[in-house]
From TrEMBL, chains A, B:
Domain HTH lacI-type: 11-65
The organism's taxonomic lineage, starting at the top: Bacteria, Bacillati, Actinomycetota, Actinomycetes, Micromonosporales
Natural source organism: Plantactinospora endophytica
Signal peptide interval: none
SMART domains xref list: HTH_LACI
Name the UniProt record assigns to this protein: LacI family transcriptional regulator
Pfam families linked to this entry: LacI (PF00356), Peripla_BP_3 (PF13377)
Keywords annotated in UniProt: DNA-binding, Transcription, Transcription regulation
Amino acid sequence: MDTPVAPSRRITIVDVAQHAQVSTTAVSKVLRNAYGVSPKMRDRVRQAIAELGYRPNAGARGMRGQTYTIGVMLPNIRNPFFAEILDGLTDHLADTDYQVLLGPGCNGRDAEAKVTHAMIDRSMDGLILIAPISTRAHLDHVAATVPTVVVGRHGRSRAYDSVADDDFAGAALVVDHLVELGHTRIAHIEHHETDRDCLAEMPNAIRAAGYQQAMRAQGLADEIDIASTSYSQEGGYLGTQQLLARPVRPTAIFAGADIVAMGALDAIAEAGLRVPEDISVAGYDNTTFAAFRPISLTSVDQAGHQIGANAARLLLDRIADRQRPAAQVKLSPTLVTRRTTAPPPTS
Amino acid sequence: MDTPVAPSRRITIVDVAQHAQVSTTAVSKVLRNAYGVSPKMRDRVRQAIAELGYRPNAGARGMRGQTYTIGVMLPNIRNPFFAEILDGLTDHLADTDYQVLLGPGCNGRDAEAKVTHAMIDRSMDGLILIAPISTRAHLDHVAATVPTVVVGRHGRSRAYDSVADDDFAGAALVVDHLVELGHTRIAHIEHHETDRDCLAEMPNAIRAAGYQQAMRAQGLADEIDIASTSYSQEGGYLGTQQLLARPVRPTAIFAGADIVAMGALDAIAEAGLRVPEDISVAGYDNTTFAAFRPISLTSVDQAGHQIGANAARLLLDRIADRQRPAAQVKLSPTLVTRRTTAPPPTS
DNA sequence: AACATCTTGGAAAACGTTGCCCACTCACTC
DNA sequence: GAGTGAGTGGGCAACGTTTTCCAAGATGTT
């Protein structure tokens, strides 16, 4: 499969040209499927490439043309939902010449800026930014430099395409499900975003807004009860402690993310209550562990695979035509009901 | 923070040289902290760089020197254990000029070859391969081309450094723990590796061997019972079904990986048995979800963070000196006991 | 005072690829 | 038979760095 010993000098396009008795220009054209190559020439060059095991140097290509590299920025590699998106991405890009490279865990704006810059420095042909928390100014700047698709963040931009799930509708799915089971005291744990700049664009804010709107639509405006912590296990734990300390305890908790629900389950167990007999819990993201039998968490499933596929498609389109007007794709979530939600206690 | 509108042309080293009234050579020297630059010159160039917001083009750098990029290949982005390693890596590399880029989910040898080649094509300065399943020949070939560290795979190579956890000892930790609780009928679910080429180097094989050795050491050679499936939820489910169908049921199951334990819990629940009252279950990897309260899985913790940090250190050393003899680092796992293991039923 | 050595800075040639442009060969058309 | 246009192939100059020299001045050594 591979030559046993690595050649001391890497094969270049010049070697291929010599071996095939043609110009480097011709080889380059074949490599890029460019216009102006006869079938005979193409075959000859292809054979020389195969015989020598030639592989183009991406850095050198990038200096004049493309690097055939797409950078993906993930905020948190631990969230399996992002893996889902990534699968959609890579599946869609598998048949192309593009190679996907991931920027590692970017928590915070500085880290995001570092990674986006690093990708631009490496002449990547396109960027996919998943749930970025950077300022709009930074995103617009990035998108002005390189074709960019932003995933999981609401708000339109003229500079970049975006793909997002309808978090507003997703929140309503949870509220409606709980109401249908008979709940009225439905509380929500949100991620408290301090930055007002991009507040309105973040999924957590949309989920909280969707929760409130859905409660009002159900005639439960007075029951709206939000604990503001963070999308983390600890945030869920603390938020739930707050909610359980209310004079009138909620009978259901809608956690803004599955990991938050994990913290909620902790706090509920510590308080000596049972799920779902005493209190129902729902999450968001339908992460892998939500399906594990001991957890069996009711959760909102975002079509991660489709999100990724759409992002890839938009990015390829934009690489092909940078002037194309920006597109926004919004996908619909679905509710997966499991064993953490049930009718409220009758008492 | 950033210029609001992206400049039409990117700032190059020539711009910096002109602005600072020096040669491009001088700028290059400052960039690389190379020898032969007076403090005055350095300050002047640094200021010009800051004023213009210059960032070096990595592709161009790579053509002559380094790209300051380290590629990490992860087999499966969903396994939180790998995220742990990654954290150790990035923490250790945070203070350096190197940027980490991840190759996305590589399942299978072809995918691994594709990613490693892509990284080499991009002139990366070093590679970290996590739990690769490629042939030794391929690994040696890669390592001959670019500094490489292999993580989570046993077996020495002269071509690359390696970091691994002592899976043999980890398996013994589980067996000894279960024996201490009073178990004797301790079964194991392993990942069945068909490829004999790298069989002996893979962690799953070492764990299975460690299990057998520990059982013998405990005088339980006759109780050795292995279900050969795969390291997946389904593998755990099927393997457990096999084990539960035995004439004499095991009282404890040692799953070779946490995800396998999840499948085991499924099958056990379906069989109407309780954990840990009727049967104990232990996993391996101490993944994030193992700690979630409803799961509370006893598991073997590999010091992922330290593994990553060691890999980064070895790689930097090797980049600095490619002739250095290859090193092997072996770390010790620890057992985290939770609520899925308990004394066997007294009946 | 002559010579060797170190320090500092720059000119120019790589590195491997692509884009631009030109030249040549064939049909085909008027 | 000259002109036209499409189809092919190649020469050469980028692209943005680093590296390898070399020169000039400063400093030290006999």
